[in-house]
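Write out the 3D structure for:
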Amino acid sequence: MRNCSVSPAVAGKAIHLTTTIGVLFSICSAAGGDPVTSKIDLLHVIRSGDVEYHINPTSDFHDDPHDIWTFDQDGALHVSGRGYGYVATRSDYRDYHLVIEFRWGEKTWGMREDRARDNGLLLHAYGPHGAYGNTWMASIECQIIEGGTGDILVLSPKLADGTELTTSVTAEIGRDRDNEMIWKKGEPRQQVTKGRINWEKRDEDWADKRGFRGRADVERPFGEWNHLEVIA
């Protein structure tokens, strides 16, 4: 069980993303040894090949992973989006501060050709590859999508033999106009094992269309770099 893992720079749902990543982790060994705090450059980890790839082979397009994740001449990681899946670290981590900068590209693909640009970070990922919809691992996803960056998706799949892989998040949760879960400071803390927790100011009229921007979105204009931090 990879219960201290993180799957960074997910390429899925037909997006085009350029990402640079720098990370500060407290590392936990597989044997549960004492943690060692150190800075880890995930871009270097990906370049070194110490990662695993998964692409859903049944999706409407599924390019070779090495064509999906490439590095440009400036050293930034470029994600073409021509596949539903992820790149995952082989090493396990916990108690980490994950820092990325990202910006969107123009093109979207396939069934999402005219849909919101979409990506995400799979945190604390564990279990078999593709367990969730043949695409994701059991994990907590920090959503990166136009109009919804910062949403939390709790992915708890059921395996073919009936085994349930439970992932959970405990958070202060209220309800929005449409009765969807939303993080809201001061609300009662609840445990969530499935579903999505929207960020506090997600536009209730969000639409799955390319270029969508909510009234209170903090994401920078298209083409500019955004800064995102996750403490987990």
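The helical segments are 42-48, 65-68.
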